[in-house]
């Protein structure tokens, strides 16, 4: 069977799987960004309880494997009466896991803004809200976006794991087709290529574009 | 199904889980050793003066880095037999983890080498040191402390990715948990124990790496004793 015959027969199935993969990617990215901001801010809080909660959360999710967390959410939570759909369990597990990594990036970003900027805003009698919105946050973005972009590419790769809790995504379809046809090279090769294309030609350019905008906002041109 | 945690069941399966943990540690160790060597190969490809090799090397690294480890595992495990190479799940897993993390480690090495100031190279040139001597005595001792945090992080990273090996049938911790869970139809205890074992191993590992980082920096004279 030639590769083109393989594509014409199974191409649509794989593309449909890719759509699910992209859906997981988008939902999990939104969730992880929200969690990173919340826990990143909690991590630099002066209140020891808030800070402690954030530290425990981050250490817990960074210390255990994503696959274990995913299976825990999908197979163990029903014992407690919380049944999540496979898709939801996947998105929540990935979002919470990457949120823990993202929180550290946010914390680092906030701490990396020079102290003089805080003091300057304070000296100019800015309100705390205005100080954050006009001075600190615009400077955080160029610092945190490059590591956050790396993390997001990692997240795309991590979405493959949701196939193991029966979400019908690209990996799942590739496994199915492999089980039917035993054309392993074709179906896993195609899946690898699709992930590569999504990452190289869509996700990474988009993230670079965000970085350029963020750099321009603070007057640092970036090529 | 009830939600209560059964201690007797947890204790009953614990020896089995601890035994499987040894396999997980073994897999992480071997995988890391292979990754460290493959990382050096990618680094060589990156630093050769031949342009075409650089380009091919970069594309390969880029491809491996932007595709999921899970599918790479399936690819190696299912495709190689089509070409008449039948390897055990263990060997496939180790090769794939080595390749995947080798690309990451090559970046760590590269960053470390570039972190050594250019003037150090120029000084060696001025003193007429051979390239080998320059690397051994001047560059590598300075590059090493820069590389340690990254290398340590990927050691923990590999450790946390070993559960993926269970998908191709390597009998490590997660595989054991799934088997036990399926046998007794109780997943609460096995998966929770797996999570706890991972926590108990990876947090001390992270602390230990931070300690080594400090010691190396100390021996290099980068920081002084009072600063700790």
Describe the protein's architecture and organization.
The complex is a heterodimer of chains A (223) and B (228). Chain A is an all-alpha fold. Helix content of chain A is 81%, strand content 0%. Chain A has one domain (3-217): MetI-like fold. Chain A has helices at 3-43, 48-63, 66-76, 86-112, 115-123, 128-158, 170-181, 184-217. The longest helix of chain A has 41 residues, at 3-43. Chain B has 228 residues and is mainly alpha-helical. The model of chain B has no long low-confidence stretch (mean pLDDT 89). Chain B has eight helices and no strands.
- Assembly type: heterodimer
Proper CATH architecture of chain A: Orthogonal Bundle
- CATH superfamily (homologous) name of chain B: MetI-like
What is the CATH fold-level name of chain A? MetI-like fold
Number of helices of chain B: 8
Outline of chain B? flat
Task: Please give a handful of descriptors for the protein shown.
heterodimer; A: 223 residues; mainly alpha; MetI-like fold; flat; B: 228 residues; 0% strand
Task: Give me the secondary-structure topology.
The complex is a heterodimer of chains A (223) and B (228).
Chain A: H1 3-43, H2 48-63, H3 66-76, H4 86-112, H5 115-123, H6 128-158, H7 170-181, H8 184-217
Chain B: H1 7-47, H2 51-65, H3 69-79, H4 89-115, H5 118-126, H6 131-161, H7 173-184, H8 188-219
């Amino acid at each position: 069977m030639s590769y083109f015959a393989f594509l014409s027969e199974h191409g649509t199935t794989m593309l449909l799987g890719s759509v699910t993969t992209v859906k997981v990617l988008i939902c999990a990215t939104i969730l992880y960004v929200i969690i990173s901001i919340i826990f990143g801010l909690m991590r630099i809080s002066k209140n020891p309880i808030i800070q402690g909660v954030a530290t425990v959360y981050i250490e817990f999710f960074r210390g255990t494997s994503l696959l274990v967390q995913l299976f825990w959410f999908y197979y163990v939570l029903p014992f407690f009466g919380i049944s999540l759909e496979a898709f939801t369990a996947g998105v929540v597990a990935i979002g919470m896991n990457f949120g823990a990594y993202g929180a550290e990036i946010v914390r680092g970003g906030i701490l990396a803004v020079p102290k003089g900027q805080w003091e300057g805003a304070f000296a100019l009698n800015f309100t705390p809200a205005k100080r954050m919105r006009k001075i600190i946050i615009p400077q955080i973005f160029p610092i945190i976006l490059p590591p956050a972009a790396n993390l997001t590419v990692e997240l795309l790769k991590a979405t493959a794991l949701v196939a193991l809790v029966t979400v019908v995504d690209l990996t799942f379809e590739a496994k199915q087709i492999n089980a039917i046809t035993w054309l392993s090279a074709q179906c896993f090769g195609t899946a690898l290529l699709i992930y590569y294309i999504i990452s190289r030609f869509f996700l990474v350019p988009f993230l670079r574009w965000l970085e350029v905008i963020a750099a321009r906002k603070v007057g640092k041109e970036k090529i | 199904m009830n939600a209560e945690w059964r201690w007797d069941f947890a204790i009953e399966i614990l020896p089995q889980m601890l035994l499987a943990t040894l396999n997980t540690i073994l897999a992480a160790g071997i995988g890391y050793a292979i990754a460290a060597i493959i990382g050096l190969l990618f680094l060589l490809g990156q630093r050769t003066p031949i342009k075409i090799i650089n380009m091919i090397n970069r594309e390969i690294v880029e491809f491996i880095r932007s595709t999921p480890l899970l599918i790479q595992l399936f690819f190696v495990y299912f495709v190689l037999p089509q070409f008449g190479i039948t390897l055990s799940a263990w060997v496939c897993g180790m090769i794939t983890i080595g390749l995947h993390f080798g690309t990451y480690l090559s970046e760590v090495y590269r960053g470390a080498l570039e972190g050594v100031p250019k003037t150090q190279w120029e000084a060696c040139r001025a003193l007429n040191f051979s390239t080998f001597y320059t690397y051994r005595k001047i560059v590598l001792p300075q590059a090493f402390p820069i590389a340690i945090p990254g290398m340590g992080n990927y050691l923990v990273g590999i450790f946390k990715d070993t559960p993926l090996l269970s998908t191709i049938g390597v009998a490590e911790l997660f595989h054991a948990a799934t088997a036990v869970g399926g046998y007794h139809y109780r997943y609460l205890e096995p998966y929770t124990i797996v999570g706890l074992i991972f926590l108990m191993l990876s947090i001390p590992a992270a602390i230990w790496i931070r300690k080594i980082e400090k010691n190396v920096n100390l021996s290099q004279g980068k920081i002084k004793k009072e600063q700790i």
